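Why do we care about 3D structure at all? Because function follows from shape, and shape follows, mostly, from sequence. That is the central idea of this module. The next example makes it concrete: a single protein chain, its amino acid sequence, and then its structure expressed as C-alpha cells.
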Amino acid sequence: MDITGNTIFIPGATSGIGLALALRLQERGNTVIVGGRREDRLAAIAAAHPELHTIRIDTADPASISEAAAAVLAAHPTLNVLVTMAGIMRAEDWTTPAGFLSTAEETVTTNVLGPIRLIAAFIEHLQAQPSATIMTVSSGLAFAPLKVTPTYNASKAAIHMLSESLRLQLAGTTVAVQELEPPAVRTDLMPGHAENEAALPLDAFIDEVMTLIETQPDATEIQVERVKFLRYGEARGDYDEVVAVLNRTDPHGR
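And the structure:
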C-alpha cells in the first residue's frame, strides 16, 4: 500500500488504534472515512477533525454493513483501501458456559464475521480499482495465547489465516492483502489497558506502523518490533517460554 494518495475506509476507528491510524493517514495526503457504531463519537470526531469523513456502521449487523458500504461508495467512488479495524476483546472463564458463551459468540461475530462481511461488501469494487489494498487486523495473540482471552486469541488466529488465504486467491488481481499485527498497545480495548505500562504507547506504535507502510509498501505483514516476540516464538523454538512470559508478566498481552 502506498503511504499517500488513497481513499481509505476504516470501520471501527472511533478510538484507539483505528482513530490514530486514520488521523496519521489523512495527514499523509489520503482521504479517510472513519466508521463506528456510536453517533456521539462520530459527531465528536467530525467536530474535532473536520478533515475526516464519518459514517455510522455496526460491523456486527449485516444490514448496517451493506447500507454503509453503499453510502461510502456513492460518496467516495475512488475508494481503494479497506481497513477491517473493528474488534472487541473480552476476558472469559471457560470452566462454565456462563463464563464465556455469550462473549465468545459476540467476539466471533465482531472479529471474524465482521471482516468477512466487510470484505464481501467491497471486494468487487476494490478489484475494479487500478491498485487496491485490504488491510486486515490480527494480533500478536494470534500466535501465542493469552490465558484470559481464549476467543479473542482464536478470532485473531482466524484473521491471520484468512489473510494468508485471501492473498493467494487475489494473487494476479489489483488487490493486495496486508495484515497489521499489533502487540499490546495502550488503548481502551480492555479495562485498564490504556494504563498498562507493559503495553506499547499508542503514538509509538502508530509512528512505527507509518514508517513500515512507507518503507515496506509491499509487505504482507506489518510487524512492529514488539510483536515479533509473539509472532516468531515457534520459529525460534522458544514458544513455551513466550507463552509463560506472556501470561506471567502482563495480563493484557505483551
